[in-house]
Every structure is written in C-alpha cells, then in structure tokens.
Amino acid sequence: MEKLIVTNIGTIATGDFSKPLVPGDTIVIEDKVITAIGGKELAANPQDAKVIDAAGTTVIPGLWDSHVHTTIGDFAPRQSTLNYIDSALHGGVTTMISAGEAHFPGRPTDPVGAKAVAIVGHKSFEKLRPSGVKVHGGALILEKGLTEKDFEELKSAGVWLVGEIGLGSVKNPADAAPMVEWARKNGFKVQMHTGGTSIPGSSTVTAADVIATKPDVVSHINGGPTAISLAEVDRIMDETNFALEIVQCGNPKVADYVARKAKEKGLLGRIIFGNDAPSGTGLIPLGILRTMCQIAAVSGIAPELVVCMATGNTARVYGLNTGVIAPGKEADLVILDTPMGSIAKNALEAFACGDIPGISHVIIDGDVKVAKSRNTPPPVRAAKVL
Prior knowledge:
Layout: E1 3-7, E2 11-13, E3 21-22, E4 26-30, E5 33-38, E6 50-53, E7 58-61, E8 63-68, E9 75-76, E10 81-82, H1 84-89, E11 93-98, H2 111-127, E12 134-136, E13 139-140, H3 148-156, E14 161-165, H4 173-185, E15 189-193, H5 207-213, E16 217-219, H6 230-239, E17 243-247, H7 252-265, E18 271-274, H8 287-298, H9 303-309, H10 312-318, E19 333-337, H11 347-353, E20 358-364, E21 367-370, E22 384-385
Parallel strand pairs: 1-6, 2-7, 8-11, 11-12, 13-14, 14-15, 15-16, 16-17, 17-18
Antiparallel strand pairs: 1-4, 2-3, 4-5, 6-22, 7-19, 9-10, 19-20, 20-21
Helix pairs in contact: 4-5, 5-6, 6-7, 8-9, 8-11
C-alpha cells in the first residue's frame, strides 16, 4: 500500500464551496486517495509512509484548466509548441478538459472524421497522461450530419465530452439543440462557445443562443471580444443554471463584472476557470493562477472561494472525483506559499494581493510530480520530503 503524509500544513483550502477552509495540519493519502485530514497525531507513526513537511505553508487541490484545445500528446500545433501541458503542471494544473480538438492538423469536418478525432483524442489521453496530468481529451466538435446513433457509438468508445458548440458547422440553436439532447441522453457534458469571434472560424453567440441550446458550460462568458453585452451576461446568470466559465485568454473587464455580479447574486458556486489555450493569445502556463489573482485581488472575492472556482466547482460540473480535499477524493494537491518579495504572509493572502504564489510541490494521485516549480516565483517557505 502506497502511503504519503503531508504534515505541518499552515492552511488547508479544500476547494469545497460549502466549507472552503478546514482545520488541521496533516493530510494522509493511501493508494491514490485522501484517507484522513486532521492533526499531527496522524503523522506520529509514519511507518512505511513518505512524509512531506509542508513548513507551515498552504495546501490546495490540484488546479483545473476547464478549457484546453488539446490535440494528441503534449504538442500544440497552433503555437508549434511542445511540452505545454508539462509547463501547466508547473503552474499547479493537475486536470485539463478538452474544449474540442479544433487545432488538430487537417481536422476532418465530416461526421465520420469528427467522430474519429474525438475517439482517438479520448483514447490517447486515457492511455498516456503527459507528465501525469489528467487530460480528458476527445471532445466531439459538432458537425452537420451527426445522428443519434453516432452519439451512442461514441459513448461505447468512452467519449463523454462535446467541445464548445460553434467550432464546427453546427452553430445555431436549431441545429445544435437536437444534438445536445442526444448527447445528454448518452451522458455527455456539453460546452458552448459564447460571445465574439475570438479566432478565425468561430462565430458570434448571443445569450439567446445559449439559453436555447442549453449547454452544461457557458464557455468563456468573458469573451474574446465582448460581443454579448453585460446585460446579456446578466440574462445568462438569471435565466439559466449553467456553469459560467471565465478564461485567461478573454476580456478582463468582463471577467471582473462576472465575478462581482456572481457574488452579488449568490452564484459564485457556478464559476469555473480555464485558459482557452493554445490560442492566438498563446500558451499561459500560469494562466489559472493569474485568473485566480485577478478575481481575488481585483474583483474582491475571498481567495479561499477563488480556490473553489479553480478546483471543486469544475470537478462538480464534470462529475469527477477530484478537485476537493476530503477523504475519498483523488489525492491531487498543490503545496504553495507567498512568493519571495511579497507583502503577503501566506498563499491565500498572496492571491488577495494579486501576487502569484510560489509552488513547492504538485502531487497527483499521491505521487509527487513537481518538487520545485520552474515557472512560479520561489516560495518564501518550501515543503520538503523528510
């Protein structure tokens, strides 16, 4: 039995919106899942366990990137870049969700080809996790001509995501709504492009389009361009219960508006974070951390709630057993502290100050994948294996 104990923790931010902070300074991990959270007595007899001294720093769940345009492996053709997933891992990201393999070289746009890309994307990442990151690839891009039987076949192959509607030939609610029904019937989670034409080939999507189509996730509600007005943002908030995705490669003013309005309306539990990269903006290894800083420091949202938006909120939307620090959850953790030179005293204060924290360790399924981030500033205090 593999066992890891993380002890001498200063703060545990759970990622659970109902209890974002919990007391305790020790987390016990056995066979890839968290088994206990409590005091130092849990580390009194480590026996064969590996022990990490967190040095009084903060532990949060592994971060989620809810919007990645993966292809195959750790390669981004749009930016001709290798190892971007590994770089994201060094920014604390342990789970990624494909929003559609739109940049697949020579991407076929007929129904048979669309299914083939989704199946190979799903099966490839299921078999090989780049740097250990839990990449959920193979998000079907909706193309005209797909039938209900196609969704049944995809389900049997393991595919369970629909990439953001609008990337393919299916762009309007009249065409999309029946396919969304077929997708839901077969257990898919559905994303929908929202707002302006962020890249060539995408289309403008209004609040009315989103409401009529009924996706699970309103992809980049903060746009690329602000093609939907702030009144339409309010309409999506008020008339739906869809997840509201804020992306780094979007409009920061609208992101601030969404966060403030969600707080005012009591809807912070619906907000999730993604990068929307690789994109024209580029690849942003610290994109999720940067968004967390903006929402905490500029929009005035408590940093422990911002952690929930980057972790547990997304896990709940996609129905996966990680993103929260609690017994029985997959042991994906980030150990981090205030960066050197910051006025903050800990990582949560750093987010509130707008400073990207320094990461000392990233853990996936109880296995240390990063022992020192090459991308974040160095932490004031660094955890260490005893």
